[in-house]
Amino acid sequence: MPDLSDADATPSAQPVRGLQRSEAQARADLLVVDSYDVTLDLASSEETFDSVTRIALTSHGGSTFLDLKPASVRSITLDGRAVDVDLLRDGRVPLTLDAGRHEVVVDAVMRFRNDGEGLHRSVDPADGRHYVYGMSFMDAAPSIFACFDQPDLKAPYTFHVRAPRDWVVIGNAPATNPEPGVWELEQTQPLSTYFVTLVAGPYHLVRDEHDGIPLGLSARQSIAADLDRDADELLTMTKQCFDEFHRLFDIRYPFGDYHQAFVPEFNAGAMENPGCVTFRDPLVFTSKVTRGVRIQRATTVAHEMAHQWFGNITTPRWWDDLWLNESFAEYMGVRVTAAVTEYDDAWVQNSFARRQWGLVADQRPSTHSVAGNGEEDALAALQNFDGISYAKGSSILKQLAARLGDEVFLEGVRDHLTRHRFGNATMHDLFDSWTRAGAGGFDAFSREWLVTAGPDRLQLDRSASQLVRTPPADHPADRSHSLRLATAPAGGAWTGTDVEVTGERTPIEVPEGHAVLVDPWEDTWAACLVDGTTLDLLPGLVTRTEDPMLRAGIWNSVRSGFHHAEVDPDAVVDLAEAWLPVESQDAGLTYTTPWLLRSAVPLSSDPATAASRLHAAALRAAHAHEPGSTLQLGSLQTAVATASDEPLLRGWLAGRDLPPGHEVDLELRWRMWVRLAVLGATDRAELDAALDAEPTAVSRVEHTRAVASMPTAEAKEFAFERFTGAVAVPNYELRAAGQGMWREAQAELLTPYVARYADQLPTAARAHSGWVQADVAEDFFPACMADDEAMALLAPLRTSDDLPAPVRRRVTDAVDELERRRAVIARFRRG
């Protein structure tokens, strides 16, 4: 058996260059893939698994390549003739095919992975059980089975799996278990390679059925009771969403069973694999969570269900049209959640959680168009799964649906999905479908909104009574905006006014001394900055603002102003202090408080006093809210994050002096341990003892975060060894180490690590792979180090040829954020 475990063949050292669009087009012109038949043996080793792939295909004749990323290869045959396995280079096997039908058979040994990609194998620290799941997205499928890995070479799959006898196996099609340890899966509908999954292990299962569709849930045995507790909510939402999607699209779900598998150490929120959607298993709540977190889970469930139509029935031909997947799923997921589930406030949660994610991404150096982004490299395209493709694209679709009307909007969608059923399509195919439904004018719409990057900036010129529209300098566009203004006198009530913005300056009536919010109800896509008069009035107004979307709009306007260094951090703290006790949507607390503590508080004139003020306000709110409510929980989480009193935190850990009706569970307990670690009020031995007392997956990750957060040289070295790969840990622990390492009050201790980060980032990038490679570069970035010396070390990374493109892109955006932080300091820092 030739050994192919050198750097070019292993998943842990993938080539920086991914599949090029030109290569994919050439291969699609040459091949039709008729079917895959895959046999996997998961029972013989904990490190590797056997993978035998039989591919039936039809060729027009010519040269191409097969994708394969093995540990070793036993044999490759083409129509029964041996192919030299030594031809495998950089994950590719060259093939020369005559015109006609062919069969390729690959017998290989693959590695289990622990980075959340390929066939990921995880050991549950709670009980030592092993769990496996497949994540084939983008370029990971060839580390599971040999394939032609691109979205427009769809084919049906049949899987045969051998697994330990106490495991269950679930995949893209219904499975039978004819004998212990043997699983046979039915042939699937035609799928893109990146949809193929397998979930295997001693999972706990919950079964149900709705409207003829078999439903399932699964999670690790150690959280079985938590899944059972959440099952009714999850299954009820799933049934409600199926009914609404069937009504909206008038096309039935076509993939057989619908299983939702909650799997460990998953990088994304979820993955829409037909028949077997995979979710990160922290979405099975093992501790009490806020309503905002529950809404986020609900919209994720609906988002993945929307993908069964947008993505799974009809798939973009190439990654430049990924918005046909993600923007639609984002829009439909929130829309359906708000329409038919108990979470009718999903749009409010979306405003707090997603609006700034998209707006900030759209103003970064890495901004790109929603559609037709021109991405030529599949690996680099992974970075476009960002706030632009999700939040901005969703907002634009919401605008379009309002403009076209639901009848035309949905009729075009139905036509598109029907014409390209189990196939691939482009943006222009969808426009053609909307045109057939009676719409028009897509050239201008596409040019201004979908293929031109960057948001307009809308800002009040109070002296001229005008609304000023400033297009992005690097991406000029002549957009018009239909929106509403909210105005209010000091201490008064808000009123809404419709405005059409059609030029650079639009006259508006602004009563003297009134507060003005531009587009707080999110009718358009623009960065809407708060003006100084409004900012001064907001602390008094927010206490009497009953509309939750207006409160979200207040924060989005303030955050946009802060992003442009036009809002004083002290004014942000004043607003937050007034707002914390009155916010009735805990989504606001869940998603605004972390930004306050990361961005505004550290740059205020007195960070310690600012944190103390927010702590007091949060604590008052926690005592005032209904005992045991999730609003009380959100307020208490803020109080923990801002606490500086070790005796108070230790009293809470012991269950003393808590707000009435609240108990300390695992998640809240680890928040307290992390805060004590940041304050230097605990040590490694005490944290180790806490982990030993509750050795769960959550505890492992939070223990890592806590240790990395301590203000000691040993703690920072602990984190940095994970960054460089000197100590290998699973992906969640790796990211927690980076997120814990850089703490505002520890700048003196951290200063040497700025140079070490800059020097060793290329080495660290090579130590990690795929999805986490760029995440690690961002998580370990010295985001709190804004001095001139740090900037001189970090800024050159933006043009470093030693960094993979995805890493360089993340670092470029991180440096941009550092420059914006420095702009706030330069303008507002006193003394």
List keywords for this structure.
5-stranded mixed beta sheet, 831 residues, disordered N terminus, alpha+beta, 26 helices
Describe the structure concisely for a colleague.
The chain has 831 residues and is α+β, with helices and mostly antiparallel strands. Helices cover 43% and strands 19% of the residues.
Number of discrete helical segments: 26
| DSSP strand content | 15-25%
Distance between the termini: 70 Å
Count of distinct strands: 28
**Biggest sheet details:** 8 strands, mixed
The share of residues in helices is: 40-55%
Give the quaternary arrangement of the chains. Answer: single chain
Strand order of the largest sheet: 5-4-7-2-1-10-13-12
Write down the Rg: 27 Å
By secondary-structure content and strand pairing, the structural class works out as alpha+beta
Low-confidence segments: 1-16
Taken from the alpha-carbon principal axes, the silhouette is globular
Mean pLDDT, as a whole number? 94
